[in-house]
Amino acid sequence: MNEAAFDMKLFESFKPGLTSFCYRMLGSMDDADDAVQETSIRAWQSWSKFRQDSSIKTWIYRIASNLCLDKLRQSKRRTLPVDLADPAVSIVEPNEVLPESSWIWPAPEFGENPEDILVRKDTLQLCFIALLQTLPPRQRAVLILKDVFEWSSKQIAETLGITPAAVNSALQRARETMDRTQLRSDEYSKMDVHPDSDLLSRYVEAFEQFNIDALVSLFHEEGCMSMPPFAMWISGQDDLSKFFALTRWHCEGSKFLRVTVNGGYPALAQYVPSEEAPVLVPWGIHVLEVKDNRIVHVLNFINTKLFSRLGLPEQIDR
After folding, report:
1. DSSP β-bridge partners for residue 286
2. What is the CATH code of the structural domain delimited by 3-78+90-108+116-186?
3. pTM of the predicted protein model
4. Sign of the C-alpha dihedral computed for residues 146, 151, 33 and 195 taken in this order
């Protein structure tokens, strides 16, 4: 075997699954893409050392897993604003911005990957990604490979370089942690699988007209909005009304495009008026979590890099 014989087409067939594995591990598509890219480089460089004592798939996932584990040892846990602190007491314009590395970010589709297609919808929910981040890195890898990808303990052991008994022990501890961990984001997510299309339309109409009364009426009484990278988040209809009034200058004139994130979940891409040209430019991706046809939580991910990842235009006409 030699480096020139490395089959890049074969690697590409693994790429959707690798990307979804790395995203669940790391909570960020930027980090996931970097890990997958580095995996391809290391696999190519190490191809001559591959002895076929395991499958090529296991070998490639071993490289990706080690990369993720190394990265997680050097980073802090990613989270969502509602799990980081209590809601704002004083309603002011948000100003405390934490680094991108602090937050879980939504993801685009990973492609029609047979290995992931049946399980990705519930295990790609943002609340599930948040729960995963509470696990120690190796337990996280074991749980994803076992409960999401449905690998055998033997296959996981070969991938992570541990014994099947160690896999089963780590899996038990991971499941126990997931069961007892109480995150606010997980409570908010115990809701309808998908927002009703009519509710999304009413949200878009109220926001684009910036009719604050109509907008707030779509929320539950204790509904909330969070806005990573801002640490601040708002809870309750009264505070939401105050917040929307305070930020009218920025949001008035917005337009939305529909998009899907995290395994096909409906979302809305918000464009705001540009200060420099008569166009609308990217601002945030709104993910609505809904119960009984009213909004429980809007996660407004203010990260313009997400727009290109989701295949959205750089600007739209006013």
Report:
1. 268, 300
2. 1.20.140.160
3. 0.92
4. negative
Q: What are phi and psi of 274, to 5 degrees?
A: -80, 145
209-217 own/partner pairs: CB under 8 Å, 24+ apart: 210/244, 210/248, 210/251, 210/252, 210/253, 210/254, 212/241, 212/244, 212/245, 212/248, 213/241, 215/244, 216/240, 216/241, 216/244
What distance in Å separates the CA atoms of residue 47 and residue 43, rounded to the nearest whole number? 6
Instruction: Please give the DSSP secondary-structure letter assigned to residue 147.
Output: I
**Domain 191-317 coded CATH 3.10.450.50:** yes
Strand, coil or helix: 265: strand
Q: What is the DSSP letter of 41?
A: H
Distance CA 176, CA 182 (A): 12
pLDDT, tens digit, 9 for 90 and up, residues 256-286: 999 999 988 899 999 999 988 899 999 999 9
